[in-house]
Design brief:
Largest interface: A-B, 45 and 47 residues
Strand content of chain B: 15-25%
Shape of chain A: globular
Order of helices and strands of chain B: HHEHEHEHHEEEHEHEHHEEHH
Strand order of the largest sheet of chain B: 2-1-3-4-8-7-9-10
Structural class of chain B: alpha/beta
Number of domains of chain A: 2
Largest sheet of chain A: 7 strands, mixed
Strand content of chain A: 15-25%
Shape of chain B: globular
CATH architecture of chain B: 3-Layer(aba) Sandwich
Structural class of chain A: alpha/beta
CATH class of chain B: Alpha Beta
Helix content of chain A: 40-55%
Number of helices of chain B: 12
Distance between the termini of chain A: 52 Å
Distance between the termini of chain B: 29 Å
CATH class of the largest domain in chain A: Alpha Beta
CATH topology of chain B: Rossmann fold
Number of strands of chain A: 16
Number of domains of chain B: 1
Oligomer: heterodimer
Radius of gyration of chain A: 21 Å
Strand order of the largest sheet of chain A: 3-2-4-5-7-6-13
CATH architecture of the largest domain in chain A: 3-Layer(aba) Sandwich
CATH superfamily of chain B: Thiamin diphosphate (ThDP)-binding fold, Pyr/PP domains
Largest sheet of chain B: 8 strands, mixed
CATH topology of the largest domain in chain A: Rossmann fold
Number of helices of chain A: 12
Chain lengths: ~400, ~300
């Protein structure tokens, strides 16, 4: 029986962590993720978990400690945001290449500068090539559910990769919403025990981690890692299927909202989806064939499935909540274009960078995007492929 | 039991030959001696900072280490060790490890990974009080990248980023006193040693550090033939000169109490240490005599301070 509650995204993650009872949590605070370790510290203080909770002196050290703990044979977790994630950058790559299935909660927040504590994806998008699996969520329920699935995906023997559970800073991390929690025992049974085959503290068989890999070996290691990310595709779907069977809520690589016959579509991630869905519903009432793709899994990128979902569209707006400074569009746009490149007939694709540093995204704004798409279809003119929206000029 | 080198050498080797360290490098001697200081019935996890030792001792698919070993990055050996120690504690508490098998958590890095880029990580781990021992093999510069100066490089040493020249007499600053900074953290055991004689001094300090509960620290002056510019066979003689000139005093600090562990019968002039190494060659040129005087003055001052701390 699930439990009806009202929780913020941060408390939902902390609750999932309490239910899973990880072995090691190494923390360093940064807004807006700070509440996660704070809630957890109280669970430790109240004896609700028997986790080794260590308060380290930086994010570089929190992830390094997780790496040491995971290699030693433990389930290790941490949480961060923004500059904290950037400070982890070096260790993210090391953790992924060492194939350590650490689960990292990210309350996504803008990068400096100017310094800003609000939401966009400039932190997590900057780490898209780190080798972490990345799951995104529209609301608190999805954050919680993603967290329950995270360890099983990351620790699967054909994957063994670290994973980021991303939520939208403040919008999801702090806003309190209704949520269905699962029973502690049901969560424990679903997630299972972590039983690595090789670990540092295995007395009968020592392990060496993190070698110098010369040219004769480096590429094999990287290809093995790339294959693990490919393997993660099926594992993500399998775990989602088991999750649906166990808890009744359904997840895939993305949610296709009113896409069956859509001519105009938006591709976006996270909490903006709720706003965009309201716009889609309004347009549908007017007979406009609008649809929405809300991407849940950014790494591995579901290129084939996304192309299949978009192939019937005539115009698509990719909504990037991070500025990649490529002068040609944001990261989600580049990936979506790459996914569509081999379609026989492709929709016209444009990129709109929006919502940076917490800039609001309204139903009217979403509607205006569909209006642009409609103009593109009507005139056959794509217009500016890469643009920004919501800023003062 | 009294230290006996012959018996020590009969122990099963835990840092094997075949590693790629240079001939005349002190780091390999440090590792062998360090592992002999772990009791044979105990296991160890070695957390190694990036550096010469790491690239030379664990080049895929070979490892020189008999015990478990992890290298993650340059600046985070202490944080990695913190995680391993946390794992050890929780796995024991949860009954996931055989309680009869003891593991010792050891971090090791050069002066770059310890005095400089890894300093924050070290300080954090010392402050948190993890039960581990940090060994610094201090070879006085960033040797893995080719002898760039570090905060452990002594004043007047020529390094590739502080080269001697017409306008330069080498590095301008004195060495950072890291051992005392560690002591200031309240570490229950900190010591300085080097590689000389039958390694009794090293062994006793290493053993005491490894078997003292809490964050302990052993700073080992570790000559580098490439960076210090000496013939490989001079390694032990240079270490001896370092202690006899008091350039590298030997002492230990137990719960804040300083104890001198070696006092030269006759304190030699600092040039006896400097003249053995090419990195100080410019100090002996005409017109640069003052550098040797200044080096002597600094060594004398530090030595006096240490004697006072030791209650002399």
């Amino acid at each position: 029986m699930s439990i009806r509650e009202r929780l913020s995204g941060n408390e939902a993650i902390a609750t999932a962590m309490r239910q899973i009872n990880p072995d090691v949590f190494a923390m360093f605070p940064i807004t807006p993720s700070t509440e996660i370790p704070q809630y957890f510290a109280q669970y430790v203080a109240d004896g609700k978990v028997d986790t080794e909770f260590i308060c380290v002196e930086s994010e570089h050290s929190s992830l390094s400690a997780c790496l040491g703990a995971e290699a030693a044979g433990c389930r290790a977790v941490t949480a961060t945001s923004s500059a904290g994630l950037s400070f982890m950058n070096e260790v993210l790559y090391v953790a992924a290449s060492a194939r350590m299935p650490i689960v990292l909660a990210v309350s996504c927040r803008a990068l400096t500068g100017p310094i800003n504590i609000n939401h966009d994806y400039s932190d997590s998008m900057a780490e898209r090539d780190s080798g972490f699996i990345q799951l995104y969520a529209e609301n608190n329920q999805e954050v919680y559910d993603n967290y329950l699935m995270a360890h099983r995906i990351a620790e699967h023997p054909s994957v063994r990769l670290p994973l980021m559970v991303c939520e939208d800073g403040f919008i999801t991390s702090h806003a309190i919403e209704n949520i269905e929690l699962e029973e502690d025992e049901a969560v424990k049974a679903f997630v299972g025990e972590y039983k690595p085959e090789h670990y540092l503290l295995k007395a009968e068989n020592p392990l060496a981690v993190g070698p110098y890999g010369i040219s004769s070996y480096y590429m094999e290691a990287r290809v093995a890692q790339a294959r693990a990310m490919i393997n993660a595709r099926q594992v993500i779907l399998d775990v989602a299927a088991d999750f649906e069977k166990t808890f009744g809520r359904s997840y895939g690589f993305f949610e296709a909202y009113r896409m069956e016959d859509a001519e105009l579509a938006m591709v976006l991630m996270g909490s903006s989806a709720g706003t965009a869905k309201a716009a889609v519903d309004g347009l549908r009432e007017q007979g406009i064939r609008a649809g929405l793709i809300k991407l849940r899994v950014f790494r591995p990128f579901p290129a084939e499935e996304l192309a299949e979902a978009l192939k019937g569209c005539r115009a698509v707006a990719v909504m990037d909540k991070s500025e990649g400074f490529s002068a040609a569009g944001g990261p989600l746009f580049a990936e979506t274009c790459g996914a569509c490149i081999n379609l026989e007939t492709r929709p016209k694709l444009i990129d709109i960078v929006y919502g940076l540093g917490g800039r609001d995204f309204t139903v009217d704004a979403a509607r205006s995007v569909y209006q642009r798409l409609e103009t593109i279809v009507r005139t056959g003119e794509t217009g500016p492929v890469y643009s920004h929206m919501g800023q003062r000029e | 039991m009294a230290y006996n080198l012959k018996e020590e050498m009969n122990k099963t080797e835990r840092f094997h030959s075949g590693h790629r360290l240079c001939a005349g490098c002190g780091a390999g001697i440090v590792c062998r001696a360090m592992m002999r200081a772990v009791d044979p019935e105990d296991k160890a996890v070695i957390c190694n900072a990036t550096g010469c030792l790491e690239v030379s001792s664990f080049q895929y698919p070979f490892t020189a280490w008999e015990d478990s070993y992890i290298h993650t990055a340059f600046e985070n050996a202490s944080a990695t060790a913190s995680g391993v120690e946390a794992a050890y504690n929780v796995m024991r508490r949860k009954g996931k490890l055989d309680p009869s098998r003891k593991f010792k958590i050891i971090a090791i890095g050069g002066d770059g990974g310890t005095y400089d880029i890894g300093f924050q990580s070290l300080s954090g781990a010392l402050e948190r009080g993890h039960d581990f021992t940090y060994f610094c093999y201090d070879n006085n510069a960033y040797m893995n990248t080719g002898t760039q100066r570090s905060s452990a490089t002594p004043r007047f040493a020529s390094a590739t980023t502080t080269p001697a020249g017409i306008e330069s007499v080498g590095k301008k600053q004195n060495q950072k006193d890291l051992t005392q900074i560690v002591v200031a953290h309240g570490s229950p055991y900190a010591a300085q040693t080097t590689l000389f004689g039958n390694l009794k001094d090293f062994h006793e300090k290493a053993h005491r550090a490894i078997y003292t509960e809490g964050p302990t620290f052993v700073n080992v002056l570790t000559p580098c033939p490439r960076g210090w510019q000496y013939p490989a066979e001079d390694l032990a003689a240079i270490c001896r000169a370092a202690i006899d000139t008091c350039v590298w005093p030997l002492y230990e600090v137990v719960e804040g109490e300083y104890r001198l562990t070696y006092e030269p019968k006759k304190k030699l002039p600092v040039e006896e240490f400097m003249k053995m190494q090419g990195r100080f060659a410019h100090c002996f040129k005409k017109g640069n005599e003052w550098t040797i005087e200044a080096a002597q003055e600094y060594v004398d001052k530090k030595w006096e301070e240490l004697l006072q701390k030791c209650g002399r």
